[in-house]
């Protein structure tokens, strides 16, 4: 579950960096003190220009080979690049002066090397040395343990921070996050509510609370949380998106469309909004509107399975069977192992009275997913029409085992048994059918009028 809490950074191109780059281009002085070089390195790191940052460190160490701060930054850069052993060797070369940043890097390096106990010793030493700002120290340490997915240790540190300063919002956010990761959902909800009690305008907390409720499938509370998030920040595209998804799950398709339209206005990928809106109109059985949005989505999402099947389904519902085949086949070419697409293909063939190809498509679908009682019943119906009564009976019985509530299934089984001359079993299922369907006998005799002439069959 993603968090939206972030810190702003001043990326202003200051005079020091400008002077450094002028020197690289052959102009200006080539001397910079350690603090200036640290600023240059940090600037490039913030910009994601790790190579430039690395070059600045190398240049700085040529000027100031004994600089602990530059060596520390070199170790940090190796950690970012994933070269933990090199970072460890650099840190080992630095005398343990109790420097806070160096100690944090030692802990992170040791954890990534799997040397948990040694990392724990350095963590303990920090608390032996530091007596102030404990909450933020715990927060810094928790980030290291969270990065290593050690949420239990991070949680212990954050609880310590909370005791020291229960109003530290950054601590509470990370505390809630750890509770989420450890599936302590009620604790996470309680913590986000504490944040909101302190400041009800924290849109990040409302969003995260909505995400928890969404994961719990408590979509009403999720909608409520996302409503607050977008009321605070109308440009919060993720909250609009999740609000739409929540309404969709509640079958509130008109409200979902309204939320998706707001998302469409903000996002850089409106084709996703078009897809979701198309799905809503499809659920509302407004197939022409659904097609309009699916076609918009396809302009960018040309090979998207959901878009292609969405168009295919709408064309099926509009009885444009030949057109639907084109899109359903495209969907299958994108995702050949999707059982649903083969069902849609079968339905298109049924609409075209091509039962042979429909049967092949149904068989392909249940080969991918045997647990499809509706498809099994459709296969049985085709077999019945083809006079393959024994095969039809097998498919009906398999469908019945999976779902005995299928409409008319007991009547069809009774018919299939009758066609196989098993009158006793036919009568048993016909009796079952008559309990739930008053027209069962009438339907049966319409399909099997010859049963009236058989004395041993009469109920």
Shape-level CATH architecture of the domain at 14-129? Alpha Horseshoe
Order of helices and strands: HHHHHHHHHHHHHHHHHHHHHHHHHH
Strand percentage lies at under 5%
Number of strands: 0
Write down the Rg.
Answer: 33 Å
**Oligomeric form of this entry?**
single chain
Question: What fold name goes in the CATH topology slot of the domain at 14-129?
Answer: Serine Threonine Protein Phosphatase 5, Tetratricopeptide repeat
Largest sheet: none
Approximate shape: elongated
Mean pLDDT: 89
How far apart are the first and last residues' alpha carbons, in Å? 61 Å
What would CATH call the class of the domain at 14-129? Answer: Mainly Alpha
CATH superfamily of the domain at 14-129: Tetratricopeptide repeat domain
């Amino acid at each position: 579950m993603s968090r939206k809490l972030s810190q702003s950074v001043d990326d202003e191109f200051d005079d020091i960096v400008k002077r450094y780059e002028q020197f690289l281009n052959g102009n200006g002085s080539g001397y910079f003190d350690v603090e200036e070089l640290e600023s240059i390195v940090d600037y490039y790191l913030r910009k994601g220009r790790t190579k430039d940052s690395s070059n600045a460190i190398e240049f700085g160490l040529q000027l100031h080979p004994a600089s602990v701060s530059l060596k520390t930054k070199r170790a940090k850069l190796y950690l970012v690049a994933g070269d933990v052993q090199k970072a460890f060797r650099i840190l080992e070369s630095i005398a343990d002066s109790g420097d806070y940043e160096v100690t944090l890097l030692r802990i992170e390096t040791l954890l990534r090397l799997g040397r948990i106990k040694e990392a724990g010793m350095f963590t303990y030493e920090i608390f032996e040395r530091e007596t102030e700002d404990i909450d933020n120290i715990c927060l810094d340490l928790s980030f290291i343990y969270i990065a290593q997915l050690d949420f239990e240790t991070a949680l212990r540190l954050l609880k310590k921070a909370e005791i020291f300063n229960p109003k530290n919002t950054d601590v509470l956010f990370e505390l809630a996050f750890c509770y989420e990761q450890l599936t302590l959902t009620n604790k996470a909800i309680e913590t986000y509510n504490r944040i909101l009690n302190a400041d009800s305008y924290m849109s990040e907390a409302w969003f995260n609370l909505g995400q928890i409720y969404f994961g719990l499938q408590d979509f009403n509370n999720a909608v409520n949380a996302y409503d607050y998030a977008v009321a605070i920040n109308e440009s919060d595209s993720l909250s609009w998106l999740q609000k739409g998804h929540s309404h969709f799950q509640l079958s509130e398709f008109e409200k979902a469309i309204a939320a998706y339209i707001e998302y469409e206005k903000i996002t850089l990928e409106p084709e996703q909004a078009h897809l979701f809106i198309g799905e809503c109109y499809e659920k509302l059985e407004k197939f022409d509107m659904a097609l309009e949005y699916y076609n918009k989505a396809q302009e960018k999402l040309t090979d998207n399975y959901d878009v292609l099947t969405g168009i295919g389904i709408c064309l099926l519902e509009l009885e444009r069977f030949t057109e639907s085949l084109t899109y359903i086949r495209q969907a299958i070419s994108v995702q050949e192992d999707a059982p649903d697409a083969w069902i849609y293909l079968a339905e298109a063939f049924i609409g075209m009275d091509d039962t042979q190809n429909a049967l092949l498509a149904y068989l392909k679908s249940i080969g991918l997913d045997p647990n499809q009682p509706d498809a099994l019943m459709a296969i049985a119906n085709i077999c019945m029409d083809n006079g393959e009564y024994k095969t039809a009976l097998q498919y009906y019985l398999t469908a019945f085992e999976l779902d005995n509530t299928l409409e008319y299934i007991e009547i069809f089984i009774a018919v299939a048994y009758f066609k196989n001359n098993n009158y006793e079993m036919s009568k048993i299922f016909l009796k079952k059918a008559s309990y739930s369907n008053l027209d069962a006998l009438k339907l049966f005799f319409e399909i099997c009028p010859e049963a009236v002439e058989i004395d041993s069959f009469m109920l």
